[in-house]
Structures are given as structure tokens and as C-alpha cells.
Amino acid sequence: MFKRSIALLVVFAFAVAVVPAQKFDYPKPQRSSQVDKFHGTMVADPYRWMEDTESADTRAWIDAQNRLTDSYLATIPQRGKIKNRLTELWNYERYSAPSKIADGFYLYSKNDGLQNQSVLYRSSSINDPGKLFFDPNKLAADGTAALSGSSFTDDGKLWAYGVSISGSDRTSWRIMNTETGEYLPDTLAPNRNGGVSWLKDNSGFFYSSYAPVEKGQELKTTTYFQKLYFHKLGTPQSEDYIVYERPDNKEYFVSGSVTDDGNWLIINVGKGTERMNMVYFKNLSMEKAPILPLITDLKNSYSFVGNDEANFYFRTDRDASRGKLVKVNVLAREHLWKDIVPETADTLNGVSFINNQFVLNYMKDAATRFKIYEMDGKFVRDVELPGIGSAGGFGGRRTDHETFYTYSSFNAPPTIYSYNMKTGKSTMFKKAGAKVDPAQFEVKQVFYESKDGTKVPMFITHKKGLKLDGSNPTILYGYGGFNIASTPGFSVSRIAWMEMGGVYAVACIRGGSEYGKTWWQGGSRLNKQNTFDDFAWAGKWLIANKYTSTPKLAIQGGSNGGLLVGAVLNQNPSLFGAALPAVGVMDMLRFTKFTIGWAWTSDYGSPDDPKDFAVMYAYSPYHQAKPGTKYPATLVTTADHDDRVFPAHSFKYAAAMQHAQAGDAPVLIRIETKAGHGAGKPTTKQIEELTDIYGFLYKNLGMK
Q: Fewest CB atoms within 10 Å of the CB: 85, 367, 572, 627?
């Protein structure tokens, strides 16, 4: 059992003098004698006090760290040129694929180039440029308010939308009359609200939420017992009633959605981030119909695709690690499941139901493939894509025959295509106006062996004509968690990096969904070390094949990828020239105690379990920062409003790394203000952060 010891009262002192360039007189926070006992192991936590992020001592430390980082970055003269080039590259028109909300009502987003948030436009047809519908930039002068959630009624007359402030996961919701632009009095107070789904008659909607959190504790308080509510239009939120809840388990997530025909409510119940769920349903066409069970265990994932009356279609990994499409009649006496499209060698990412056909989105070695099938499972055709890349879309109603998809790759800006489901013809609709010549860059995919011999795919992108002499500055990026794949995608920031002579590599390591459930489970919980080995061996492969060398190799990742970078850096300090862990989960023994962190035990395990603890403690970045070690240049990044990964993770890790550093390379932390985990971050803040990151790499990788 886990036992907390009593923390000692300590007095904190800081070195806050101006720091000369190249001399790292780090702020020196007091190290408390806090020690906890886990399953017989005594574990020190000297920076526990930093978890009080608003205390005077923590704020003083933050200010001192930002002054140190700012003074160091100010010595890099190339930052001005880097910022100018990033700004120039970023300044291009870009669009989202149109969505048909209702007859004569299309919606798309557009960014003129440097707008902090993209703007929504409404048009009467796909050939009509339309008019402005909603501009999130008017919500906050500094662009830190972002649209976060959107749901229209079936006829498009009402719109529910969520707004997030400073990157928070907490959203407030309003309702707009789309014909008049007027707002209804109905609102949802700031919370982890989500899953708004309207009834067919526009009389109200279902949504998921939690009990209110005490003001001032939003960044820290754990949230449990999610419930599914119904809001009747024209009534205050205080009168919303609970449709479904699970008081038997505080960790269950509960969400609900109304089917396209309006006749059924589908309720999903899951635990943590496992992607495994139970399914319940309710007949909305019958008054006082009960909620009935369909799936009552957490052994597999079931993603609802659509229905044909009582025949429900699901994408599932039940008896199919890489996914398949199945059908079940929910009103039959026995729920007999029938395979419509069986499992294949490729991983099934998603399924759309349109034109009375199914569009299956597959991954083949982490690149997108689309296949179309009839409702009985008969194969129709492949959708030809321009190359190795990522594509998404094919949204619409079951009876629509016109749809859209977007394709991009590391060297290819997003291009939107319209697709005729009847003829199978793709027509280019919009192309992003990025000032990039794809022909200047080369994208390739390689496969390398990890420590245990597992073949792992990796994408490598760089300017053509690259010399394999080990001299190329390289960023190796990874994520490797939560059943999320790392796929090819476009970013102007990567173009800027490659223009600087850099190589950009993405390792598709275990823990993701690249090869289905087994690939994810092969890099989670007791197998998490496989993820770190896969990433380290990707770096070794890049060095062995002369793409780069240790002094020129940087590793980068955010959130779970921040944990990845921290763990791999601590395990292999002499392998890399620089490290960039962003908003990472760095204290693996206390992540369950803050906000939504408890949900991550599905990937990491629980520190309360002796077997999980042994594995987690062995790689926990905060605890494995070893004093006397020469670490490479490290720039930790986080934000003071991150209510997903509590910023104290990065604070404690940075303090531990600075205390441990025995080498001359800088170990710095950049703490963004009025920003969260990353979603909705304004353009200006993105450019500023990337300027600092690339400037840091320019100096520490010896770039010219």
C-alpha cells in the first residue's frame, strides 16, 4: 500500500540575479526532505511544493526560470531571421473541407494567413465563397479564446458551440439561431463539457459533464463521475437532468449521441483511455423507453458507424486486432454479430456511412488508404490518393453522394478534394496557398529494428540532395501512446526546419495504433519500455546510416511524447545533442492526482499496483534524473494554464534536471502564459515558441 509521509516545512531561497550569457547560474530552489513509501521503496520528492503552482515560492521560481531562459535565447542572433521566415511561411490562405450542415447550408473554416484563430464561413453551395459566419478572433483581443466543440441541429437552424480560454480543456457553451445570428439564453457553464448531440425536433440536446470544480482549483482538482445529461431548450442548466450515470465506478467516461435518423440514443461507457467501451441504447421514438444493454464488458472497442433501422453497424477490434466492420440487430432476441468487412492486414482507422455505402479508412504502414464497400460488404473500389500521406474526411449523411476529403504529407500542403460517391471521381476543390515547392523535398519511409528485433516504420523528410555524411542537424519526433498513430502531415514549421538544412524524422513506435491493438498494447503498461527502446533505436539507426550524428541529433515530443523524450533522454544521455520535452507527464508516481490524469492508467498502469510501480518508477523522468550526469542541451516547454497535464510535472522535472546536470549544456524551461496543453494556441504564440525552439537548436546543434 502507498503511504504518504508528512512533508517538512521548509524555507525557499532563489538565485534571481541577472544571468550572464553562457553561464548557467540556475535558480536554486530548496530541496525538501519529502519522502514517500511505495510498496516498500522509499521515494524522494524534493520539489513536491511546486505542485502549489500559485504559491509565492513557485511563482518566484517560474519568474526566475523565465528570466534565465529569455536571457539565454537573447544571445542567439539568428532568432530574428528564424521568426521572419516562420512568419512568412505561415502567412498563407488555408481552408478546411466543407461540411454540408443542411440543404443550402455549407460550412467551412478559413485562415487568411496570420489570424490567431481560423474563421467560419457559411455558403449556399460549394462554388459560393459565402459570408462570414463566426469569428473566434473577436472573443479575445490576444487570440487566446478558441472554438472548442460544435454541433448543429439536423436542419441547421440552431448551433451549439463551445469556447475554450487559454487552451483549457474546460469549455463554456452557447446556442445561436443561425438564421438571425441571435443567441438563445441557454448556456453551459465552464466545465469539461462535451458530446453535444441534438434531438431531431430541436427541443434539446444530450451532453456529458462533471460536477463543478471549486474556483481557483481548475488546474489541479481531479474530475470523476462523468454523467450524461439532457438539456431542454429554454430552461436553465440547473434543470438539466441525468440521463445515464455509473455511480459504481468513478472512473467511467459516459457519452451519448443521437443517430442520424433521430430514432436512437447510443450511450458509450469507457474507462480511462483504453478505447475499450460498453454500449447501451435507447429508442427515442418510444415514450419512456428503457435504456438497454448491448455490450456490457470492457474487453474491446466498439465505434458506432450508423444504422439501418434496428441494424447497427460498428467498427470493432473484437477478435480482430486491426479492426473490422460488423452489424447487429439490436431488437433481435439474441444479439448475433455479423462481419460485414472482416479484418485485413491493414489497420482500420475509421468508417463513414454515406451514399448507402461504407468508406473504410485504413492505415498501411502508417499511411492512409481508403476503400469503399456496399452495405452487404461487397468491395466497390479504392480511392486513389496522390502519394504517401494522410487523408481524412468522407463526412456526410447516409443518403449524400457528394463528400470531401483532405490529403497532406510532410512535403505536401493540405489539398481538399470533392469526391463523387457514384462515379468514384476525385476533383481538386481547394489547395492551401503555402509558399512551398514540394519538389524541393524528399519523403521516404524506412523500417528499422528495435532493441528486441521488432520492425518499426519511420518517415524521413529533408531537402533533396542531402549528403549522408553524419553532419545533418536532425529532429527525431515521437509520441508512442494511447493508441494514437503518428502519420504523415504538413507543417510550415517543418519546412522552415528543412530550409535550415535540417532533417525531420518521425518514428512510428509501439504504443500507437499503427498496427492495431497489439501494437498499442506492446508499448503500454508493463510493456512501456518497448516504446522508449523503439525511439532510442530510431536515433541509433539515423546515426548508423549517416543521416546525422550524436552532436547533431535532437529528440522532440509533447504530452505523452514529452514523457517519451524525458525517459529516453535520461536512459541515453550520451546519444543525443539536444532534447525538447513539451508539456510532458514527468512524475509517473503522482500523475493520477491531478485533473484527468487518473484516466491514463490504461496506458501507464497505476502506482498503487506493485508491478506497475516497479516499471513506472524505473523510467519516471522526474525520478530518474541522475545527479552527476552530463546531459545534452534540454529545453523543457509547458504552459501555466495546462489543465490536462498539470504544469508542475514540467516544473519538477526541470528543477531535478538542473540539479543533476554535470555538463556544460543548458537545461532550461520555457513557461508560456495564457496557454494550455496546445489546442487552440494562437498563431502568434506558436510562432514565438517555434522561434525559441529553433533558435535553441541552431545554437546547440552547431548549425551554420
A: 627
Would you state the pLDDT for residue 645?
85
Query: Which residues make Cβ contacts (< 8 Å) with residue 435, sequence separation at least 6?
Result: 88, 89, 92
Pairing of strands 99-102, 94-95: unpaired
Strands 667-672, 633-639: pairing is parallel
- Contact (Cβ atoms closer than 8 angstroms) between residue 351 and residue 325: yes
Which residue stretches of the chain have pLDDT < 50? 1-21, 678
| All three cell numbers of 124 | 449556399
Q: Could you give the CA distance from residue 309 to residue 256 in angstroms, rounded to a whole number? A: 18
Distance CA 510, CA 534 (A): 7
Q: What is the pLDDT of residues 331-351, one digit of tens each?
A: 998 999 999 999 999 999 999
Residues in the chain: 704
| Closest by CA position to 141, among listed 674, 623, 660, 676 | 674
The residues pairing with 132 across neighbouring beta strands, listed in sequence order, are 121
Task: Give the Å distances, CA to CA, from 294 to 206, 282, 316, 321, 439.
Answer: 20, 10, 14, 21, 52
Res 219: pLDDT: 60
Euclidean distance between CA atoms 631 and 206, whole angstroms? 51
Q: What letter represents residue 695's amino acid?
A: G
* DSSP tally for the chain: helices H, then strands E: 10, 40
Would you list the domain boundaries of the chain? 344-433, 436-683
677 included as an active-site residue: yes
Report strand pairing: 474-477 vs 503-507. parallel
User: Are the C-beta atoms of residues 261 and 307 closer than 8 Å to each other?
Assistant: yes
Provide the 3-class DSSP secondary structure of residue 531.
Answer: helix
Residue found by looking up cell 450524461 in the block: 228
288, exposed or middle or buried, with CB in 10 Å at 0-12, 13-18, 19+? exposed
How many whole angstroms separate alpha carbon 145 and alpha carbon 527?
39
Q: Which of 86, 73, 83 is nearest to 700 (CA)?
A: 73
Catalytic residue among 168, 390, 559, 650: 559
Q: Which of 462, 623, 649, 677 is catalytic?
A: 677
Q: Cβ neighbours of residue 322 under 8 Å, at least 6 residues apart?
A: 343, 344, 345, 346, 347, 348, 515, 516, 517
- The CATH architecture that domain 436-683 belongs to is 3-Layer(aba) Sandwich (3.40)
> Would you put residue 345 in left (φ > 0), alpha (ψ -120 to 50) or beta?
alpha
Is pTM beyond 0.85? Reply is: yes
Alpha-carbon gap, residue 589 to 592, rounded angstroms: 8
**pLDDT at residue 16 in the model:** 30
Return the pLDDT at 465.
Answer: 95
DSSP state of 629: B
Query: Which pLDDT does position 367 carry in this prediction?
Result: 93
In terms of Cα–Cα distance, which of 133, 93, 129 is closest to 112?
93
Q: 532 is written with which cell numbers?
A: 522508449
pLDDT tens per residue across span 111-163: 999 998 999 999 999 889 899 999 999 998 888 888 889 999 999 999 999 99
